[in-house]
Protein 1
Amino acid sequence: MAEPDTARFLADLHELRQIGKFKTGVHRPTYTPQDMESRHWLMDRMRQVGLEPEMDGLGNVLGRHPGPGKKLLAGSHIETQNEAGWLDGALGVLAGLALARAGMPVDVVAFADEEGHYGSFLGSRSMVGEVTEAEIDAARHATEGKPLRQALREAGLEGLPRMRLDPARYRGFLELHIEQGTQLEQAGLRSGVVTGIFGIRYFKITAVGQQDHTGGTTMAERKDAAVAAMRVLALIDERFPMHIGERTVWTCGRVVLEPNAPHIIAGRAELIFQFRDLSEEVLDRLETLLHRIVQEVDGRDRCTLSIERLGRSAPAIADPVLHGALCEAATRHANGQWQPMPSGAIHDAQHVAKIMPMAMLFTPSIGGISHHWAEDTKEEDLVLALRILADAAEKALGS
């Protein structure tokens, strides 16, 4: 079995975290100077291990193995959320680099903007052929409003062609990632083999009432949009648990009231609501239930309610062969200390799975913390994860 250089792997991780260092984490948002420095740093490391690196017009970095025959694709992303952690994304990319350094026929990829500063998984969706030039034209920074075209020009990427992954080249895609949750830590386990990545459906629910004075308008006259919106959320809380799967999650992450003033009855309320599960059947069931709840409140409330689906992503189930290789490797290296588990978070692997087999491996997050500078994982768990990944990759390449 090819033995990865774990000391060099850890050294690479610690060196990369110096680019954009923030407290014990990293501030390396997409297309910032720090992000672009990290991409060029990665390309240098790829050359050192014998890969042939290229960066495309969205900042995707792909290091190709020059030898003949089928390859594995391995990687993740290296940009970060604002003032965030040092392992989210970077772990998977540098694990891929460690596989290549061990002599395996592996291509290593760092997808651009997984963190969604300018769009939804722009890099991986582009590399599987889903991003149009019109989408790039329209894209803006999520909080600052800067046009994506301007950011690409400032980053020196303007005019570069966009790469497409060739599924015929690969046996599949492997992504190592921190868990970003507490299941492994709470169970006293050291590794998780991902069974699949949750699908998401998210919606905008709007209640329209009558903006009016809080003192002069009697309770019998009111058309309070805030109250109507809260009725929807109360019914979701009451009824969803009777229709969910084992690991279903749901969230109302945004509530907007207009005019949102302390002495004015809200004339309009908007909820952004999402739910996630590994089963399309469960997702369909919950979508039907959500529509019923909105219709029920609309029928008995003084306000008018409507619902609009803003987006969806299908669940991505791990490939049985790659998943089995990870399970065997986890048993060999961490017998009794690993479990199969779904991924509630979305990763680049979900989009790559549209064109080739994929599987993922999780390593514990201390305290479940991620998207924060305190994000961390024990080094012995990082090393264990790399050994499991390398073992599984070697088996997959030999199958």
Note: The mean pLDDT is 97.
Protein 2
Amino acid sequence: MKPPANGAARLLSGAGLAAALLLPTALPAQAGPPSRVPAADGKKGQELPGMPSALDPEADEVVCTPASRETAKKQDWSRQRLDLDRLHQHSTGAGVTVALIGTGVTPGAAGLKGRVTADGEAADDCVGSGTFLAGLIAGTGGDSPRLAGVAPGAKILALRGTDRRGEASADLVVDALRAATEARAEVIAVAVALPRQDAALSSAVAEARRAGAVVVAAAAPDPPSRGGSDEIPARTYWPAGEPGVLSVADMLPGGVRPDGSLPTYGVDLAAPGAGVVSGGPRGTGHYLGGGVPVATAYAAGAVAAVRAAHPDDSPEDVVRRLTATAYPADIPQLDAYAAVTSVLGEPVGSAGSAGSAGSAGSAGDKDGADPVTVRDTSATDRATGRATLFVLLGSAAVLAVLWAGFALSRARARGWRPAGAAGTASE
């Protein structure tokens, strides 16, 4: 598999899942209208209330998202797409701390009890989005284990990057990044996207990376709930645009971005971001969510699973592992199972790469699994095939010349008479 080309690839929105699955960025201060859950087995799904990523900014009073009274009966498509049932046989992210910067996380939420650290306002998730995302990263699924997150053995450090309504703040994101760095979180997931870069934000990201954290960030905000995004030009959002940050966008089951998605640049991965099921901050019911924050949570969970399975990998190696094993597409698509289990060759051009293909080791050899990019051998294979053909043709030509020389010498010895005639004359 060829490593994806990172850089200024523009994301285009695509047609796909039914409009009922595309949740607005801001909903009234109540659970969203019921939406249909796409079942993993292709059969008719079920309806669940929608989880907003922010509350109505124009409402006079802040009313938190209420508890859902519905529970999902089936595993949704996203978990099947990421092959989580098989992934958990190899890694659950045990021992890894994921700092989640968003609307906060309720520490006692179903499937997250005892594994969430949240102080002050970070423990007050009025919107519910942060708790929803935490379930996708590290939730056990509670009474529904098939709805567990990508890394159910990981721990969550909840940090606020928004106000109580879910509106992102650059100052809060910077403070949260610094808190995550101080806490030595191995993974930092930034579920919000800011329209402007500033020195404090760049410094906070750089400090986190120097401390050894893998920073995963939403490539763009969710689209505005009122009006279309056709007139919004492509641009870079932050901190996803910072060097070394794993930038993530959402995708539909068909692999394209949802209609109305904000165009952006430099996306590293796409992950499921529509029709996704998880829990909320209150009660034991389930919600249906989508958008770039959901995709970011899935990618952060995959990073946690990789860090637990390959603890000696550097942060840069972890990022390369996720991008190298991604399903090749216009935007490479996250493959969490492959990221954890693949045995990969050394980066092309690195020291010792000339012999890396033969020294990668077996699947059970940790040292063999440490290098983190797949070497593209297609050109070598074509060259080897041509060389083999030339050798065969050359060998055939040499044999033909030798045989011709042998035949000529025998004919000369017979006086140029046919073989049968020579035998009769000698008698």
Note: Residues 201 and 394 are 64 Å apart (CA to CA).
